[in-house]
Amino acid sequence: MQVNLRSFKQKVRHNTKAFTKYLGSIAKNPPKGLDNMASKIDEQVWKEIDCLSCANCCKSMTPTFTKTDVKRISNHLEMSVKEFTEKWLVYEEEDKDWINKKQPCQFLSKETNMCSIYEVRPLDCAGFPHLKKRKMPEYMHWHQQNINYCPATYKMVEKMMEQGIKPEKKSK
Length: 172
What we know:
The protein is about 50% helix and about 5% strand. It has eight helices and three strands; from the N terminus they run H-H-H-E-H-H-E-E-H-H-H. It has a three-stranded antiparallel β-sheet with strand order 1-3-2.
C-alpha cells in the first residue's frame, strides 16, 4: 500500500505520546509470547506498507556504518576506505559511530526511492525497522524512536494495540 507521508506525520503528531508510553509499558512487563506475536504482526504490516513509496528512513535518519560495512561498501564502489569515509561519512566521537554526512542518504534515488547500494547496504539498513527481532523488549527503545519516522513501526504498534496486546500483569 502506498504511504502518504503527510498523513503519516499527522498521525505521528497525534499519537506519539500514547504509542511511546504503550511501548514503554510493554518493555517493562512483556507479555508471554511477545516475540511470536510480533512475528505475526510483522507479516500483517508488510501486506499494508510499501517501503518504496515512503523511504522516510533514508530521507530523515542515518544508519550507523560498522567497520565491516565501510569496507564492503567502499570495495563495492571501488574506493579506498579513506576515500569513502572522507566523501560520505562523519565520525561521531560521542557514540563512536560512522554516520552519513547529510540527509537524505546519498545512496537514495529521489526518483525511485531505491537504494543504489542495496545489495551491500549497511547492516543497520538491512535490519531496519527491526520489527521481529527476538527478545523484542530489548528493541522497544528503538521502536519508540522509529514510530516517528517509519510507517511500518507505527503500523506495528497500532496493530499491537488493536489486537489487545497488553503488558503482563505483575503477580503479587
